[in-house]
Amino acid sequence: MIYCPDCREEIPVEDFNVSTDIAFCRRCGKNHRYSALADFEVRAGFRPDRPPRGMRVLPDDGTGEGIVFRYFSHAVWILCFFAVFWCGVTGTLTVAVWCAGNSPWFAKLFMLPFQLIGIGFLFGIAMMLFGRSELRFRDGALEMFSGIGRIGRRRRWELADIRKVAVEPTGIQQNGRQVEGVAIVTADGRRRFIGRSLDAEKQQFLVNLIRQKIRLNDSRKSGYWA
Q1: Is the pLDDT of residue 221 over 60?
Q2: d(CA 22, CA 44)
Q3: How many CA atoms lie within 13 A of 115 on its CB side?
Q4: Phi, psi values for residue 104, rounded to 5°
Q5: What is the per-residue pLDDT across 67-113, written as a single tens digit (0 to 9) for each?
Q6: pLDDT at residue 77, rounded to an integer
Q7: Could you tell me how many helices (H) and strands (E) the chain has, helices first?
Q8: Is there a contact between 37 and 224 (Cβ–Cβ < 8 Å)?
């Protein structure tokens, strides 16, 4: 479903042409670029109250309605095994170097990056086991928290500033494959990704959910309606 950015009425299939990139609104009598409107197309039959397994709808408790999802993957057990091996080997070597009285200072500093990598492994395991991401829609904005408990990263987008929401390649390679994420493009051209670790079904759900909230946002005064 695509909608006119002026009157917000749905434009039926017979009134847009993908090949010519034109969408015509009969109510306004205006032509629009189909490609721009398609950036906010909401899949027909989308149900925001029925998220995929692993996601949970958050009721509005005064902080805005939203959705929460976790990062758990069975790959965490492989990561645990590798982390134990890495930290065990590098930790033993680091202690030996630092405790040796005749070790030069550069040898001690050389071991620090290996410990930072080990800390990174432990943080990744903690995020996969206990971490979560939470999206909230309130006051005409999309707010996102990612972390463990109350410790983590917070981001905020004004719905009126969002110009595109879509699943796109992130530029990160994993096992020879391009990692995809939900891209949020704002009016200043900045592109930020969320949900990189989610599967395709969950990513598409987030895309439809955000697009729907943009379309329903009464504070949106300019640009393309979702």
Answers
A1: no
A2: 20
A3: 12
A4: -70, 155
A5: 888 876 677 788 888 888 998 998 888 888 888 877 788 888 888 89
A6: 84
A7: 4, 13
A8: yes
Nearest to 180 by CA among 188, 191, 170, 192: 170
Spatial separation of the C-alpha atoms in residues 42 and 193, rounded to whole Å:
19
Which tokens hold the place of 61?
């408790």
Q: Please say whether the beta carbons of 156 and 137 come within 8 A.
A: no
Q: Give the dihedral sign, CA 154/160/166/171.
A: negative
Task: Name residue 152's beta-bridge partners.
Answer: 147
Q: What angle do CA 203, 208, 211 make, to 5 degrees?
A: 125
Distance, CA of 5 to CA of 28 (rounded, Å): 10
**Residue whose token pair is 């994420």:** 181
* DSSP state for residue 173 in the 8-state scheme: E
pLDDT digits (tens, 9 = 90+) for 13-65: 777 777 777 888 888 887 877 766 665 566 656 777 788 888 888 877 665 67
Query: What own/partner pairs with CB < 8 Å and gap ≥ 24 does 78-87 have?
Result: 79/121, 79/124, 79/125, 79/128, 80/125, 82/121, 83/118, 83/121, 83/122, 83/125, 86/114, 86/117, 86/118, 86/121, 87/118, 87/121, 87/122
Topology of the domain covering 48-71+132-216? PH-domain like (2.30.29)
* Average predicted confidence (pLDDT) for the chain: 80
CB-based burial of residue 222 (10 Å sphere; 0-12 exposed, 13-18 middle, 19+ buried)? exposed
Both structure tokens of 92 = 């033993």
